[in-house]
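STRUCTURE:
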C-alpha cells in the first residue's frame, strides 16, 4: 500500500508545478507598461479605443482585436481585470489538457515539459519591445493539443490510453477557442480550422454529443466575450470582413526577408521529417493518423506563415518557438526511439531559429518567470493601486519627453504615434486603421477615406513622415491624401509633427481626372507627366500563377519602384502591389515631414524633387509577376 500514495503525491506535486509554470507564461500578473516605439504604441491604442467605446470592425480595424492585451501583456486600467481573468481561465484549460496528455508518460518527460515551459516558452526579461518572442505559437498550440486530447482516446492503439472526456468538460475546454479570435484574427483562422477538423474526427469516432458541444461552446464564448467587451453583435460581419481583408493581403504587402534564407528551409525540412516519422511510428490507428496529418500540418503551416512572411528579428523566433512546441508534442504522441531522435532534431532546429535573434538562457528565463509570478501576486494583493499609478507616471513621462501640443477638439495622428497623443491628454479620435502602414489594400485605405469624409473626422491632425520597409509614405493611407489636402490646412511644425487643422469651408470631395494610361514593361522607364501640381499614379501589377502559389504557401518576390529625378538621381522604394493598385501621390516626392509641409502650404516644388520617370524592378527573377503591367496617371479636380 505504500507505493500508491507516494505515486499520487508525486503526481499531485507535478500537476502543481505544471500549473505554476503555465501561470508564469500565460497570466500577466506583472504586466508590461506602455513604451514609445511604434510596436509599443498600437497595443495601448487598441485598449484605449476599447475604453472609448469604439466598435472593432466598424470604427477600429486591425490584425488584433479588443482582447489584444492577452497577447501583448500591456497594461491598461480598463482591460487589466479582464486580461488577468481570461488568461487565468485559459491557463486552467491549458493545464488540464496538457496534464491529461502527459499523465501516462514517464517521469523524465514530465520533468522535461516543466523545464521547457518555464525555461523556453516564458516571457522572461523583455528583450523585445513588449515580448521576447511573440506568443502566436502558444495560441496555435492550444487547439492542437485539445484536438489530440479529445480524439486520442478513440484512435490510440497502445495500452497508454487517455481517459474519455465528458461533454461538460468538452464544453469548458473549448471555451477559449471562442475568445481567441478577439485577441488576434489569425487565431480565428486556426481555431475555426481545428473546430472543423475536431468535429469531423469526433463524428467519425461516434461521439456525436461531444461534436455538437465542441461546435456550440466556442460560439457561445465568442458572443459572451463581445457582450462583456461592450461590442455589438451587429458588427460581427464587419469584423470578419475586415479581418479576412487584412489576412488576404498581408503576405503581399508586409513580407520582408532580413535573416538567412536557410531558415525557412530548415523549418520545412524538420517539419516534414517529424510528420513523416509520426505517421510511420505513432501508436495511432490508420484513421487516427488520417486526422493527425492535417492537424500537425495546420499547426506547422500557420506557424511557418506567422514567422516567415515578415522574416525579421520579431517574427522568425515565433516559428522557432513553434518547432520547439512541435518537438515536445511529437515526443508526447510517441516515445519510440526514432520519434524521440527526430523530436530532438526538431528541437535543435527551433533553437537555431530562436537563437539567431534571442539570447537563450533557460535558467535565467525560468528565474525571471517565477519571480514575475511572486512579484505580480505581491503587487496585486498588497499594492492594488500601484499598477494604475505606474501607468499614469509612464504616460506623464512620455508627455514630458515628447511635448505633443494640446489642441482643441478631436485629434488624430499619423502614422504610429498614437500612444504619444493619448499621453498628451488630447481628445483622441482615431481613424479605423490606426497606423498608416497597415492600410495594405484599397479596401482598407477606403475605410480611412470614408472616415475623413464623415462628420466624425477630427478637427486636428498631427502628421509625421515615418514609413516602414523603405516604402513611399504616400502609399500609406493613400486614398485619404486628396481629402486631407482639400479639407485641412497646415499650422506649422511642432515636436517633429506637421499640425493640420480642419478648414471651416470643407467644399465638395475632389474628383479624380485621368491624364494618361498605358502599359509598362519590367526595367523600362515610364515618363511622368509634368503638370506642376499634385500627381497621382495607379499601378496594376498581377501575380503569375507561381506568384499566387508563393503567396499562399510562402511569399512572392518583392517589387520595387525606382524613380529617376531631374539630374539623373535615382531613388528606389519597396512597392507592395496591392497598395499601389489603389493609387497614390507620386509627385511631388514626399520623403520628410518638411516636404509634407511644403505640399500642404502649396509652396513651390523644389527642383530636386521633380520626377522624370519611374520603372518597376524585382528582387529576383520576376517569375512571381506577369508583365506588361498597366498604369494610370491622374490628378484631382477641385483640389484646393
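SEQUENCE:
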Amino acid at each position: 500500500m505504500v507505493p500508491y500514495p507516494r505515486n499520487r503525491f508525486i503526481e499531485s506535486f507535478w500537476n502543481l508545478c505544471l500549473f505554476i509554470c503555465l501561470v508564469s507564461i500565460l497570466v500577466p500578473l506583472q504586466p508590461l507598461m506602455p513604451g514609445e516605439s511604434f510596436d509599443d504604441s498600437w497595443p495601448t491604442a487598441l485598449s484605449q479605443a476599447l475604453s472609448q467605446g469604439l466598435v472593432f470592425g466598424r470604427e477600429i480595424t486591425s490584425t488584433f482585436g479588443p482582447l489584444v492585451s492577452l497577447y501583448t501583456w500591456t497594461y491598461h486600467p480598463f482591460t487589466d481585470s479582464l486580461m488577468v481573468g481570461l488568461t487565468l481561465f485559459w491557463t486552467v484549460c491549458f493545464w488540464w489538457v496538457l496534464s491529461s496528455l502527459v499523465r501516462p508518460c514517464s517521469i523524465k518527460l514530465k520533468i522535461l515539459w516543466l523545464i521547457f515551459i518555464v525555461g523556453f516558452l516564458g516571457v522572461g526579461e523583455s528583450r523585445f519591445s513588449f515580448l521576447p518572442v511573440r506568443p502566436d505559437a502558444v495560441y496555435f498550440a492550444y487547439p492542437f493539443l485539445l484536438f489530440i486530447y479529445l480524439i486520442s482516446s478513440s484512435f490510440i492503439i497502445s495500452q497508454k490510453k487517455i481517459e474519455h472526456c465528458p461533454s461538460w468538460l468538452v464544453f469548458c475546454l473549448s471555451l477559449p477557442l471562442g475568445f481567441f479570435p478577439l485577441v488576434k484574427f489569425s487565431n480565428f483562422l486556426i481555431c475555426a480550422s481545428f473546430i472543423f477538423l475536431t468535429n469531423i474526427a469526433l463524428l467519425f469516432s461516434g461521439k456525436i454529443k461531444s461534436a455538437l458541444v465542441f461546435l456550440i461552446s466556442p460560439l457561445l464564448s465568442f458572443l459572451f466575450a463581445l457582450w462583456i467587451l461592450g461590442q455589438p453583435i451587429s458588427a460581427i460581419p464587419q469584423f470578419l470582413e475586415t479581418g479576412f481583408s487584412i489576412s488576404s493581403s498581408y503576405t503581399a504587402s508586409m513580407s520582408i526577408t532580413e535573416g538567412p534564407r536557410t531558415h525557412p528551409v530548415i523549418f520545412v525540412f524538420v517539419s516534414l521529417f517529424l510528420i513523416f516519422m509520426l505517421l510511420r511510428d505513432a501508436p495511432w490507428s490508420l484513421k487516427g493518423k488520417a486526422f493527425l496529418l492535417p492537424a500537425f500540418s495546420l499547426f506547422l503551416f500557420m506557424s511557418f506563415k506567422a514567422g516567415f512572411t515578415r522574416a525579421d528579428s520579431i517574427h522568425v523566433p515565433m516559428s522557432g518557438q513553434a518547432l520547439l512546441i512541435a518537438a515536445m508534442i511529437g515526443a508526447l504522441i510517441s516515445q519510440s526511439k526514432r520519434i524521440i531522435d527526430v523530436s530532438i532534431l526538431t528541437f535543435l532546429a527551433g533553437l537555431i531559429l530562436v537563437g539567431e535573434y534571442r539570447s537563450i538562457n533557460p535558467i535565467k528565463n525560468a528565474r525571471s518567470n517565477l519571480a514575475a509570478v511572486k512579484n505580480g501576486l505581491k503587487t496585486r494583493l498588497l499594492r492594488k493601486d500601484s499598477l494604475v499609478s505606474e501607468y499614469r507616471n509612464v504616460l506623464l513621462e512620455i508627455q514630458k519627453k515628447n511635448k505633443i501640443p494640446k489642441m482643441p477638439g478631436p485629434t488624430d495622428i499619423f502614422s504610429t504615434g498614437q500612444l504619444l497623443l493619448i499621453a498628451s491628454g488630447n481628445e483622441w479620435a482615431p481613424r479605423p486603421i490606426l497606423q498608416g502602414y497597415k492600410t495594405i489594400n484599397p479596401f482598407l485605405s477606403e475605410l480611412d477615406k470614408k472616415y475623413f469624409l464623415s462628420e466624425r473626422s477630427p478637427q486636428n491632425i498631427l502628421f509625421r513622415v515615418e514609413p516602414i520597409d523603405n516604402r513611399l509614405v504616400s502609399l500609406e493611407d493613400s486614398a485619404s491624401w486628396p481629402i486631407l489636402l482639400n479639407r485641412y490646412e497646415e499650422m506649422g511644425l511642432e515636436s517633429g509633427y506637421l499640425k493640420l487643422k480642419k478648414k471651416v469651408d470643407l467644399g465638395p470631395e475632389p474628383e479624380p481626372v485621368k491624364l494618361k494610361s498605358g502599359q509598362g514593361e519590367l526595367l523600362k522607364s515610364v515618363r511622368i507627366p509634368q503638370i506642376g501640381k499634385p500627381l497621382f499614379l495607379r499601378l496594376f501589377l498581377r501575380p503569375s500563377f507561381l506568384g499566387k502559389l508563393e503567396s499562399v504557401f510562402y511569399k512572392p518576390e518583392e517589387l520595387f519602384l525606382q524613380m529617376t529625378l531631374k539630374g539623373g538621381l535615382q531613388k528606389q522604394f519597396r512597392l507592395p502591389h496591392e497598395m499601389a493598385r489603389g493609387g497614390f501621390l507620386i509627385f511631388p516626392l514626399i520623403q520628410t515631414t518638411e516636404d509634407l509641409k511644403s505640399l500642404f502650404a502649396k509652396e513651390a516644388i523644389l527642383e530636386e524633387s521633380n520626377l522624370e520617370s519611374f520603372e518597376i524592378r524585382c528582387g529576383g527573377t520576376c517569375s512571381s509577376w506577369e508583365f506588361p503591367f498597366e498604369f494610370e496617371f491622374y490628378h484631382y479636380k477641385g483640389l484646393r
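REMARK: The longest strand covers residues 625-637.
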